[in-house]
Amino acid sequence: MTKYIPILIFCLSFQLFSQSQNELKATIIGSGSPKYNTERAGPSVLMSYKNTNILVDMGNGTQGNLDKLQVKSKDLDALLFTHHHLDHNEEFTPIFIKTLLAAGQFKVVGPRPTTDLVNSVLSNYEEDIAYRLSKKQRTFSDVANNFTVNELEGNQSFTIGDIEISCTPVNHTIATMAYRFDAGGKSIVISGDLSYSESLPALAKQADYLIIDSGGAIEEGKANNRTGKSKNRGNKEHAHVNLDESSRMANEAQVKNLVLTHLNFNNVDEVATSKALKENYSGSIFYAEDLMTFPKAENNTNTPTQITKKAKNSQAPNFEKMLKRLDTNKDGKIAITESKGKLKENFDKRDANKDGFITENEFGRGK
């Protein structure tokens, strides 16, 4: 009997892998914003189903996180843009060129000026591309037909591999598209950056997940500063939603799960932010982190409170990590001149003996 155990394990593993491959998934490649952050890569989401992989936006750090997942350029079937702000297309050039050199068929899709961007890359890096192709006795003519560019306007629907995609323009400071991905009976919507847009609830109607701009999310320690700032913004044009607007759109769309991404800081006050969202929206709420995958496992029975506590623990600052990042003179403590960001703001609260340094014992103070 024991000789069959390895075979049984292999069969079970293969079955689980097949189930994973046959489910539409969104992996948060980058959950950050234009602000450089060592803990959050710039905006990017990898949509996967069966053998189809679609990369939506390519912010700073996208390549590094794809590498952690062992996703290669040759694995990508399409590069999509929600819009062309730098934090969303910063790593397009190297990803596009590497995908082109991989010699597979792929698409580049997005709002204007997607076509101009692709042409600019091909022109500016013409010699570099030619050199790299020549190392394998190829020329640009060998790969010129391996990609297509589709510049989007208005509402459109199209298919890439096994995934059906719908898109709609949403309100932002430049031309911006939100996308809906449908496959295997599941639907996931990515809003891109936006202010309140009537088109988004229509696109996201009864979607399983809505991954949305986190505008208005509350940072830990700053909940009291946000009172009354979430609603009644009048007719002034805004680049990003607030919590009232994002929750109203999620409610209007009747989405099952809401995922906040494009976060400006590491430590989200999930209790305060969720409380504001729950004024309009009653579904499940998640706060994106790099390499987080949706849908979440259905056998996860954690309550929102338990999830919040786990998320807080996972995001809590670690003294050892802080030392590696900030302790430039390697003396085992952090000087006020070495501190940055929130640590610098709260330095006096943590520095118990007021000697101008924070030790490991003092690090837990002032959180």
Q: How is this structure best described in words?
A:
The chain is α/β, with parallel strands linked by helices and 367 residues long. The chain folds into two domains: 25-315, Ribonuclease Z/Hydroxyacylglutathione hydrolase-like (Metallo-beta-lactamase, Chain A, 4-Layer Sandwich); 319-363, no CATH class. The protein has 14 helices and 16 strands. The chain has helices at 5-21, 62-68, 86-89, 92-101, 114-124, 126-134, 199-203, 243-253, 270-277, 304-315, 319-326, 341-345, 347-350, 360-363; strands at residues 25-30, 44-49, 52-56, 78-80, 106-111, 147-152, 156-160, 163-170, 176-183, 186-190, 209-213, 257-261, 284-287, 293-294, 334-335, 357-358. A seven-stranded mixed beta sheet has the order 6-5-4-3-2-1-14. Strands 7-8-9-10-11-12-13 form a seven-stranded mixed beta sheet. Helix 8 links the parallel strand 11 (209-213) and strand 12 (257-261). The model is unreliable at 12-19 and 299-316 (pLDDT under 50). Pfam families: EF-hand_5, Lactamase_B_2. GO terms for molecular function: 3'-tRNA processing endoribonuclease activity; calcium ion binding. Its EC number is 3.1.26.11. Residues 220-241, 347-367 are annotated as: Disordered.
